[in-house]
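Supplementary Methods. Inverse-folding protocol.

Structures were first reduced to a discrete structure-token string of length 239. This string, shown here, constituted the complete conditioning input.
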């Protein structure tokens, strides 16, 4: 067992050196303001994105939630699904504390928290039937999303569902003309406030497909600038 652990740790270190993983952005100072910042900028739309497929998740039993910030989605999921148990991963200690408090009010003992960089964190289970990433993948590069998706594909149970909420580039020219400066300003603001180094939206759809996931359904808001998606492992797209 010791040799296996050492080998795994060595592999993670080698991967970090190979991909030159940057220090994660620090969202601690935004934890108390995050909800109000979101509401002032986009009103209820981001919340609608997160919860777009919530009614389809009531049969899930083992969930992995990455980068849920102050935990509003986690709390809603616990309330809607009284049987699910969740592993929540976030690099921000302040955000994770808020998630834990919200989670304990909705489902005491049903949430485990991990303060870690999701890019290097190793899943604690290989049987997650739900993965959730809401406005998190846009903090990563396309290559980082691909590497994460490959890791999560191995940790996903048969019939798993991955729900994704993200900013997106609209398909029509007028929508892109509006969305591009908005997204650019958001990246600039988060770079100033958190040290986020990413400056453009990753091609998360292509990355997830290459990792073995298939898009089952997609909803959009604000002319296509916001998207909610439901993905499944490619072998179980009909579930």
């Amino acid at each position: 067992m010791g040799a296996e652990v050492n080998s795994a740790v060595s592999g993670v270190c080698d991967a970090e050196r190979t991909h030159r993983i940057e220090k994660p952005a620090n969202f601690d100072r935004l934890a108390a303001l995050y909800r109000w910042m979101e509401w002032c900028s986009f009103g209820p739309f981001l919340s609608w994105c997160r919860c777009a497929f919530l009614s389809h998740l009531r049969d899930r039993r083992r969930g992995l939630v990455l980068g849920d910030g102050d935990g509003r989605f986690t709390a809603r999921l616990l309330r809607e699904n009284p049987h699910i148990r969740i592993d929540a991963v976030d690099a921000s200690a302040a955000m994770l504390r808020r998630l834990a408090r919200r989670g304990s009010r909705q489902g005491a003992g049903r949430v485990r928290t991990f303060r870690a960089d999701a890019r290097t964190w190793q899943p604690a289970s290989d049987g997650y039937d739900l993965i959730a990433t809401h406005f998190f993948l846009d903090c990563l590069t396309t290559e980082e999303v691909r590497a994460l998706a490959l890791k999560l594909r191995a940790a996903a149970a048969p019939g798993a569902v991955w729900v994704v909420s993200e900013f997106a580039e609209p398909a029509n020219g007028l929508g892109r003309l509006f969305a591009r400066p908005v997204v650019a300003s958001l990246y600039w603001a988060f770079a100033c406030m958190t040290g986020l180094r990413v400056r453009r939206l990753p091609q998360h759809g292509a990355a997830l497909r290459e990792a073995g996931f298939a898009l089952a359904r997609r909803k959009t808001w604000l002319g296509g600038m916001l998207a909610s998606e439901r993905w499944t492992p490619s072998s179980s797209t009909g579930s």
